[in-house]
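Form 7-S
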Amino acid sequence: MSLQQVPSSSSSSLSRSQPPAPPPPVFRPSADVLEEEVYEEGVRRIIERDFFPGLSLLRAQKDYLDALENNDLHKLKEITLQLAQRTMSRQFPFNIPFNRFPFQF
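Output:
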């Protein structure tokens, strides 16, 4: 077993090597500053969607009861169609035209 010695010229060439290249610049998209009202509305919609998914249905039911109390037939028909579209879109993957149902308001 013989140990080979590394020539001294190779160690000197390592010390003369170039410094490492600088890291590439980080791409940061420009930040759009939102108005406070726009930001709050967006956060409110996200919280409502994620944490209170039934809140929109409760609001529609409240509007329906208010219209029923005020005897507003036009508003009742409008809310009924909106609620029917919501429930039908959850049950069926395709749209059914609502003007073909046998009932009329």
